[in-house]
Design a protein that fits this description.
- The structure is a homodimer.
- By secondary structure, chain A is α+β, with helices and mostly antiparallel strands.
- The first copy, chain A, contains 8 helices and 10 strands.
- Chain A has helices spanning 12-25, 38-45, 49-62, 91-95, 116-122, 159-166, 169-175, 195-200; strands at residues 65-68, 72-75, 81-85, 102-113, 129-139, 142-152, 181-192, 208-218, 223-232, 236-241.
- In chain A, strands 4-5-6-9-8-7 form a 6-stranded antiparallel β-sheet.
- In chain A, helix 2 (38-45) packs across helix 3 (49-62).
- The termini of chain A are far apart.
- At the A-B interface, helix 1, strand 7, helix 8, strand 8 and strand 10 of A face helix 1, strand 7, helix 8, strand 8 and strand 10 of B.
- Chain A binds a DNA duplex through helix 3.
Amino acid sequence: MEFVERRSGISLWRQIADQIRIAISNGEFSDTDMLPGELALAKRFEVNRHTVRSAIASLAREGVVRVEQGRGTFIAGHQRLHYPIGRRTRFSAGLAGQTRTLSGSLKESRMETASAQVAQALALDPGAPVVRLVRVSTADDVPLSRAISWFDGTRFPDFAERLAKQRSITAVLKSFGIDDYVRISTRISAHHADPQTLEDLRLSPGAIALRTEAINAEVGGRRVEYSNTYFAADRIELDIDHETPSTGL
Amino acid sequence: MEFVERRSGISLWRQIADQIRIAISNGEFSDTDMLPGELALAKRFEVNRHTVRSAIASLAREGVVRVEQGRGTFIAGHQRLHYPIGRRTRFSAGLAGQTRTLSGSLKESRMETASAQVAQALALDPGAPVVRLVRVSTADDVPLSRAISWFDGTRFPDFAERLAKQRSITAVLKSFGIDDYVRISTRISAHHADPQTLEDLRLSPGAIALRTEAINAEVGGRRVEYSNTYFAADRIELDIDHETPSTGL
DNA sequence: TTAATTTGTCTATTTATCTAGACAACTAGA
DNA sequence: TCTAGTTGTCTAGATAAATAGACAAATTAA
C-alpha cells in the first residue's frame, strides 16, 4: 500500500507515474525489468485499473517503459548523465563520452544593464552594460540545459558574434586573450521549471529544473562570466569534485 | 499571458501557484511586496478568478503570502537557507547563524547487509554488515532534510546507541577515535519526493527533493560514511566550495 | 459620505478525472 | 488446443476541478 493524496492538485495518475518512475530508478524492478501487472499496481496504489493505465501511458510517452499487449510492461533503461562540477568545469568536456551527440544553440543575445545581482557577481557597478546570452544544450536530440550567461559588456562587446563562429565559451574567451579560467563559486537549487524552461527543454508542467548559479574568473580572480543554468533534473545529475587543497604534498 | 497546460495531470490552480511562487522568488513583485489583484491574475493566466483564488489559498496555507480582505494579497518573505558543501562539510556548522533552532532526530536505525551500492561507497564487500540510520533535521520547527546514512557495521557496531547520547555524527566518530574526516565525493540530483520523504518533511505531492549522495572518509582515505540526504528543495540551496588546489602558493 | 477597488461567499453549469464492469485481443505455458 | 494471465477498448456513472455570474464585506482615497 502506497500513498496517493487526493485533492492535492496533482492527479492520481500523475502521482502514480512519479512513484513508479522513482521506484524504477531505485532499482525496485531490476530483477525482471518488468512492471507488475496493471491489476497488481491498482491494488498497490488503491486505485482503479484505468487510473494505473493512465500513469503507465504517461511513462510510455516519456520513454521510461514500453508496453506490449498480452506480455506486460517493460522497463526501458533510463540513465541520467553525470555532469562533473569543480574548479575546471567545462560543459562539453564534462559530458564527453556520455552521449553520441552534444550541441549547443544560442537562443537569445542582447546587451542590457546589469541588475544588482549580475553586477555583484561580475564585480561591476549596477547599471553597467553586460552581454546576456541564452543557450540551450542538446544531447542525443534531447534538450539538456538552458543557460543564461552574463559577461562584462565593455570588455566583451561582440561576445555573441564571436560565439556564433567559435561554438564554445572557452574558445571565445581565448579569442579575447583569456587562456584559462576557473569556477570560483557554484550554488545549486531545485525548482519547478518556469514556463520558458519547460518549453525550451520540452518538459511538462510539474517537471523539475536543477539550477546552478556559477561564477567563473581568470586565475588572477578577475570575474569573467556569471551564469544561471537550468538542467532537466530527470536527465542529469551533478558530481561535485572535492579537490585536495594541497595536491603536491 | 503565461502558459498553463490543461490535461497535464497538474491542476490549473497548482500550476498557477507554482508560477506565482517562482515569480516571487525572482523578485517580480518586490517593489510593492504585493500580488496583483485576483482579476488581474485571472487575466494574466487566462483562467477564472476562482481558479486563481484556489492557487492563492494554497500559497497562503504554505505561508508564502498573506491575504487581507479589501486590501489585497501580501508577500510574506520566504528565504531559502544556504547549505555550504565542501571538503569540510558539517551539517550543524554549515547552517549555524541562519536559524533560531536546529535539531536532528533519529527516526530509524538497524543493522543490515550492504547492497552493491553501499558496499562500493564504503569499500566493503557486498553483504558485509552495515549500520543504517535515518535522521530528520528540523530548523525553526520546519523539517529540512531526511538523511539515510550507512557505516561499517563491524567497525561501528553501536553507532546508533552512541548517537542517541552524543547528538552529532562528528561527536560519535570522535568517540570511535576518528578526530577528523573529509567529504571525498558529493553527487547532487533532484527528484519528486517519494512518499516517505513527503511525510517526514511535511511536503505535498509534487514537491521537490534535492538529493545529495555523499561519501566521507578519514584523512588517510579510509571510508567512514555513505549518505543519501533529501532536502526540501523549497527551503534550501546548496553552495559549493571550490577550494583552491594549492593554498600555500 | 461616496465611489472605486479589493477579497469573500454563494449558486449553477460544464468539463475533466476517477471508478466500475464487461469483454476483446494477445502471449506464454501446460 | 486450452487456459491463465496479460494489455486494449468500450460503456456508464460518480466525483472533483474549472467556469460563470451575482452580490456581500472590507479597505482606501477622493
